[in-house]
Amino acid sequence: MKIRKKLIAWYLMHKRPLPWRETQDPYKIWLSEIMLQQTRVEQGMPYYFKFLEAFPSVHDLANATEGEVLKLWQGLGYYSRARNLHETAKHVSKSLNGQFPRTYKELIKLKGVGDYTASAIASICFNEATPVVDGNVYRVLSRYYGIRTPINSTSGIKEFKALAEELIDKERPATFNQAIMEFGAIQCKPQNPYCLHCPLNDSCMALATSKVKELPIKLKKGKIKRRFFNYLVMISDDDETQLQQRTKKGIWQHLYEFPLIEAEKKLSKKELLELQGFKDLVKDNNFKVSLYNDEEVIHKLSHQHLHTQFWIVLVNEIKKGAIPISNIKKYPVPILIDNFVEEFNF
């Protein structure tokens, strides 16, 4: 097919020199693919190097504690990726003797490995002709063929996967998969694609029908949920503070944070002090409370916005779960907490 040859030719001329393109080691490919899920290359690159330095092999990653993995992941977001990464490393190291599965069907059984990641590893490392379909691929195919099926619908996922299977170069699956992803990343971009200098502009349906800005089509997400967080930043006379680990499923599972009171709305100081939750957390009768940030910090996640206030609570002593303030940076925390710690200059 013409599109196949043109994409590979374009890729061989324009591909970026990314470190995971210099290897077929499944550990390194797997690591990069997990990190780049919902993460830009520029953001993920430093984490890739940090992880390889700390954990040169899957055995090293498996032998790390979850806390060490989460701390190194801190700032990348979507922390379930890090927890799944660690669980899969332990499985590969201990149950598979350090050897990753060699086929798509076996790779997709690994925790945290979906269709896209299994296809990427199978094609790049083991030359299996299984196509990758990520956001870049959806965009290229929907524009080139003028497909209006929503890419995040059940029918859309099946349609684009079938089309990618037709297009893949069975002799060079790794090259083709990387070519179409790279093309979507730097040529057929979401905004302001380079249509004038595009090698596919003579046969692109979206360009011919002036639909480039409309494609791909995506079903709208549900309503964003607003949550109101009040963090109690305890500071004792002997320079101790308090952190708690989030153990329930949901955002930031197993990360640490200051004692939290979640409310239905933004709280005033008076309202905060009247809450039973505050009285349960602050056991010292001699305390002083002040609001650190006059304006809420709004931390935006995919389906929710966290309206956050940090309350400085000065106490004589912390009677349970105290840690030295000097140790606070050793704990894996959400970026919201990490930014506060840096700004407050503990």
From TrEMBL:
A Pfam family hit: NUDIX_4
EC number(s) per entry: 3.2.2.31
Cofactor binding note from Swiss-Prot or TrEMBL: Binds 1 [4Fe-4S] cluster.
Reactions listed under catalytic activity: Hydrolyzes free adenine bases from 7,8-dihydro-8-oxoguanine:adenine mismatched double-stranded DNA, leaving an apurinic site
Keyword 4Fe-4S among UniProt keywords: yes
Record's keyword terms, sorted: 4Fe-4S, DNA damage, DNA repair, Glycosidase, Hydrolase, Iron, Iron-sulfur, Metal-binding
Entry annotated with the keyword Iron-sulfur: yes
Cofactor: [4Fe-4S] cluster
Protein role: Adenine glycosylase active on G-A mispairs. MutY also corrects error-prone DNA synthesis past GO lesions which are due to the oxidatively damaged form of guanine: 7,8-dihydro-8-oxoguanine (8-oxo-dGTP).
Protein name per the record: Adenine DNA glycosylase
Provenance organism: Sungkyunkwania multivorans
